[in-house]
Design brief:
Shape: rod-shaped
Helix content: 25-40%
GO molecular function: zinc ion binding
Largest sheet: none
InterPro entries: AN1-like_Znf, Znf_AN1
Strand content: under 5%
Radius of gyration: 20 Å
Keywords: Metal-binding, Zinc, Zinc-finger
Number of domains: 1
Protein name: AN1-type domain-containing protein
Number of strands: 0
Number of helices: 1
Structural class: mainly alpha
Length: about 60
Amino acid sequence: EAPCNSAAMRIVGDCPHCESHFCGQHRLPEQHACINLESCKAAAFEKNREKLEGERTVSSKLVSV
């Protein structure tokens, strides 16, 4: 693949996972083949799991009389 010649975007073009700078087309980790993509996915999965665990409703047990 040919290298991208587009200018890097300020702030939104900074990848927090690999600390590199990218244009608007390549700013997402999936689009620039981020070297930390797997750890990024694992962290997002864990964050989502914790959120869903906190929102889970548990039906109370019914006591027979």
